[in-house]
Specification:
Elements (H helix, E strand, L loop, with lengths): L14 E7 L3 H16 L6 E8 L3 H11 L4 E2 L3 H5 L5 E4 L7 H9 L3 E5 L6 H14 L3 E4 L6 H11 L6 E9 L16 H16 L3 E9 L8 E2 L2 E2 L5 E8 L4 E7 L8 E8 L2 E6 L5 E6 L9 E4 L21 H17 L10 H20 L3 E2 L8
Parallel strand pairs: 1-2, 1-4, 2-3, 4-5, 5-6, 7-12
Antiparallel strand pairs: 7-13, 8-11, 8-17, 9-10, 11-12, 13-14, 14-15, 15-16
Helix pairs in contact: 1-8, 4-5, 5-9, 7-9
Length: 385
C-alpha cells in the first residue's frame, strides 16, 4: 500500500451467494443489476456474491463470466445446484430451461429466481409453485416492470382509492421484431409468452385477479414453416384479450410483435370515477395523472416519478435524475435479496411463483377461448384445476 493510504473499512453487510443459469440478454441484465446493489442500496441491503454462472457453450459462458464479473463458470447447471456456496439460484436461461433446473435448485433448498414466463405449460408452472411452497424457499418470477417507480406509484394510488371505482382499464405491449417475415428471429416465443405475460401481470398487479377472458390470436406474418435456430416458432404474432376482473371491471389486454415503430412499448391506462392514470415504458419516468374537479386545469398532469419520496427512486440519484430500463431489474433483485436476508415475504410487490402461475393460467384460458370462440373462466391459484 502506497504511503498515505489507509485500508477501506470492511463491508460488514451479509453476503449472499448467487448462481446464475444463462449468459444472454437476461443474464447480462441480471448480472448488471446484481453488481449495482452493494453501492446503491447503502447502508442497508446485502452484498451479492457472484459465485458462478452456467451455460452450455464453454467459450461463451467463459467470456460472460469475465465480462459480467462472476468468479467462475460451468457448462452444466447442476454444478450451481450442487454448490453449497450458492444460496440463490437465478434462472435467466431460455424458456425451455426454466423448469428442470429450477426444480432441482428448490430440491437442494436454494431460494429461486426465474425469468418469465415461469413455464411454457400451466402444469409445469404449477409444479414449480407447489415445490417452492413445500420447500419453504423464497421464490420470484421476474416481472421486472412492477419495480418501475411509476408503476409502484400507480399501485399505491389505486390501492389507496385515488381513482375511486375503476370503470375501464387497458393494457398493451407492442414490439416490431417479427414484422419482417424474412428476418432472423431472436427467440421462438410468440407474443403471449414473450411480452403478453408482462401485460397480464401489470393488469393483475394494478387492478386485481382476472376472472375470465375472451381472446383471439392472429399470425399475419409468421407462417408454420418459420423457424428460430432450427426450432419451431410459436404462431401468435398478435393477441387480443377481453378480460373480466374479479371486481367486475372489464378491460383489454393485447400484445403484438408486428407493430412497426414500436421498439418496446408496454403501456396502460386506468379510468375510474375520481380520475385516470396512464403510463408508457417509452417514457418510463413519467406517470400521467388526472383528478376530476380541477376546473380550468382539467386534463392530465405529467408527474416525474424520480423524486426522493418515491420509494423505488430514493436509493438512486438526486431529484429528477431519471432512471432507465435496467433499474427495474436492480430494484427487483434488491427487493428479493432483502426478503431472503430478512426472511420477509416477497409479495405483494414482488411477483412470486404464484404470480407466474396466475399469468400462465390466464394465458391458458386465453388459448382455450380463442379455440372455442367462447368466454373462459380463469382458475384462481390455489383452486383445483
Amino acid at each position: 500500500m502506497a504511503a498515505g493510504y489507509r485500508p477501506a473499512p470492511r463491508d460488514e453487510r451479509p453476503a449472499v451467494g448467487i448462481g446464475m443459469l444463462g449468459y444472454g440478454f437476461m443474464g447480462r441484465a441480471h448480472s448488471n443489476a446484481l453488481r449495482q446493489l452493494p453501492s446503491t442500496f447503502w447502508p442497508g441491503g446485502c452484498r451479492p456474491r457472484l459465485v458462478g454462472i452456467a451455460g452450455r457453450t464453454e467459450s461463451a459462458v467463459a467470456e460472460a463470466a469475465t465480462r459480467y464479473g462472476w468468479e467462475q463458470y460451468a457448462t452444466d447447471w447442476r454444478t450451481l445446484v450442487e454448490d453449497p456456496q450458492v444460496e440463490v439460484f437465478d434462472n435467466a436461461g431460455p424458456d425451455a430451461m426454466h423448469v428442470e433446473p429450477t426444480l432441482a435448485a428448490i430440491a437442494a433448498g436454494k431460494h429461486v429466481v426465474c425469468e418469465k414466463p415461469l413455464a411454457l405449460a400451466v402444469a409445469d408452472a404449477q409444479r414449480l409453485y407447489d415445490a417452492a411452497e413445500a420447500a419453504g424457499v423464497k421464490h420470484l418470477t421476474c416481472f421486472n416492470y412492477r419495480f418501475m417507480p411509476a408503476v409502484r406509484l400507480a399501485h399505491e394510488l389505486v390501492k389507496g382509492g385515488e381513482l375511486g371505482e375503476l370503470h375501464q382499464v387497458r393494457f398493451r405491449y407492442s414490439q416490431e421484431w417479427r414484422t419482417d417475415a424474412d428476418a432472423e428471429l431472436p427467440a421462438p416465443a410468440g407474443a403471449l409468452n414473450i411480452i403478453g405475460c408482462h401485460a397480464i401481470d401489470q393488469a393483475r398487479f394494478l387492478v386485481g385477479e382476472i376472472a375470465g377472458v375472451s381472446a383471439r390470436f392472429a399470425s399475419p406474418v409468421t407462417t408454420p414453416v418459420r423457424e428460430c435456430r432450427g426450432e419451431p416458432v410459436e404462431q401468435d404474432d398478435t393477441v387480443a384479450i377481453l378480460a373480466e376482473f374479479d371486481s367486475g371491471v372489464v378491460g383489454t389486454i393485447d400484445a403484438s410483435l408486428v407493430s412497426p415503430g414500436r421498439k418496446n412499448m408496454l403501456a396502460w391506462e386506468l379510468n375510474g370515477s375520481k380520475g385516470s392514470l396512464s403510463w408508457s415504458l417509452e417514457q418510463l419516468n413519467h406517470l400521467h395523472v388526472h383528478r376530476r374537479g380541477n376546473g380550468s386545469t382539467q386534463g392530465f398532469t405529467e408527474v416525474i416519478v424520480t423524486e426522493p419520496d418515491h420509494v423505488l427512486a430514493a436509493p438512486w440519484w438526486p431529484s429528477a435524475h431519471i432512471l432507465g430500463w435496467e433499474h427495474g431489474h436492480a430494484n427487483m433483485l434488491a427487493h428479493f435479496l432483502h426478503a431472503v436476508v430478512e426472511d420477509e415475504p416477497v409479495g405483494p410487490y414482488g411477483a412470486t411463483f404464484a404470480d407466474g402461475l396466475a399469468a400462465a393460467r390466464v394465458g391458458e384460458a386465453s388459448h382455450a377461448s380463442a379455440q372455442s370462440g367462447r368466454h373462459v373462466t380463469v382458475t384462481p391459484v390455489g383452486a383445483s384445476v
